[in-house]
């Protein structure tokens, strides 16, 4: 039976962190579950350490690049489980999630499993479940698939260490590191998806604020340079270009926003991000208003 390690990076969210830990430890998986709490640029709470043969918690400190990617990698390298799962410190694994994903891995022979999410934003809650059993690289290039949140990832440790590799720490601000990780994993082999919500994901207004738009634009341009395969998927290229256009518009960079909006429409004239970016660039609507409205519908830019 496969032992599981859950890696939870954390920074200054003590109450939500405890909920995340408890939700992992409460999974009905019959083998051992190890939780690695990786503190990133914050003081570790050693009281969370818990010894046990079947359920344990270890507190670590990120000793790699500051940020989410380095914290995840610190946990991956310290993990003892046959399977490694991710969970953000403000999310929770739902009951039965782990057993469903382990069964999917065993029946399919896949290296990487995902599942749907239950999104909670302010007072609203809704499920986002991908209507696919298998996820390939071309499909991920066309669509980011918000349903495939990092807190749903469960990966064979051997595949991580000998094939897929660690989370990339070079991405500006660690933004879209989860998407790049999915693309790289799908390059390695198709992913298996469980068609039910397995993780509660909390979205916060603080997840998107003006000071981050420049970093978002830089990270997405880095992603396009790293994955030339986007050139073969015009709709996917247009989607990312539209995100860049929106990020530039949100910073007040009208000329850059127009450039990227044109590039977006050249690939897909139906891509809504181009039109949203132009609306922001023309000061017809504020970027945070658009983001908030999309979040209420379980979507994002």
Automatic annotation (TrEMBL):
The organism sits in which domain of life? Bacteria
Quote the InterPro entries the UniProt record gives: Glyco_trans_2-like, Glycosyltransf_2, Nucleotide-diphossugar_trans
Question: CDD domains per the record?
Answer: Glyco_tranf_GTA_type (cd00761)
Q: What is this protein called?
A: Glycosyltransferase 2-like domain-containing protein
Where's the Glycosyltransferase 2-like domain? Answer: 6-159
Q: Name one Pfam family in it.
A: Glycos_transf_2
The species this protein belongs to is Paractinoplanes rishiriensis
